[in-house]
Amino acid sequence: MRSGDSYQVMLIGDSAVGKTCLLVRFKDNTFLSGSFISTVGIDFRNKVVNVDGTKVKLQIWDTAGQERFRSVTHAYYRDANALLLLYDVTNKASFDNIRAWLAEINEYAQDDVVIMLLGNKSDMTSERLVRREDGERLAKEYGTAFMETSAKTGLNVELAFMAIARDLKSRK
Ligand code: GDP
Ligand code: MG
Fold first, then answer.
1. What's the gap in Å between 16 CA and the centre of ligand 2?
2. Residue with the nearest Cα to atom 15 of ligand 1?
3. What is the pLDDT of residue 75?
4. Which residues are near ligand 2, the ion (C-beta closer than 5 Å)?
């Protein structure tokens, strides 16, 4: 692999939607349930992925508890090349709050930031309260990519990060 570029990817969204678990799933291919690390969050993890024979380094930042008070620092947005914006398909409020998160992104993030909307916990079929179509419609309205994921089963996790890496690489 040739050595390519490095990008900052930030995970945002309401508390408990699965940001930390998604990062751990992508980085270590494991699932954390209800553990300490999941509560406090982690700072960031690097992962190098291969996009068409070029190494792309992703530095993936977790929001370590600040999201509880909606006080994600503005500097955090400013440095982001990509944002993974999560809601929980079993938590309607987390979906309704996506518009507020997008307003913040619009205010503080770089104009060319790559955004992907993710409906996480899609494995919880009987508890689901947000339909896939609702997620798709919202993403379409804001012109962002969209996927449903599960940090628990791993569904679409690799795919989401690879799509981001591919998009970042193609934009430069
Ligand atoms: P964060 O606050 O957004 O970082 O959320 P966490 O990653 O700490 O996850 C919150 C809770 O949801 C934890 O108990 C996780 O085990 C659980 N969780 C996270 N992702 C999933 C998922 O995809 N499926 C299921 N069933 N549970 C999940
Ligand atoms: Mg967390």
1. 7
2. 33
3. 75
4. 19-20, 41
Query: How much is the pTM?
Result: 0.94
User: Between helices 19-28 and 157-171, what is the axis angle to 10°?
Assistant: 80
**How many Å is the Cα radius of gyration of the chain?**
15
pLDDT given for residue 43 in this prediction: 84
How buried is residue 90: exposed, middle or buried, by Cβ count under 10 Å (0-12/13-18/19+)? buried
Q: How far is ligand 2, taken at its centre, from the CA of residue 2, in Å?
A: 33
Residue 167: the pLDDT is 96
Q: Give the whole-angstrom CA distance, residue 26 versus residue 154.
A: 8
pLDDT surpasses 90 at 34: no
Identify the burial level of 3 via C-beta atoms within 10 angstroms of its C-beta, where 0-12 means exposed, 13-18 middle and 19 or more buried.
exposed
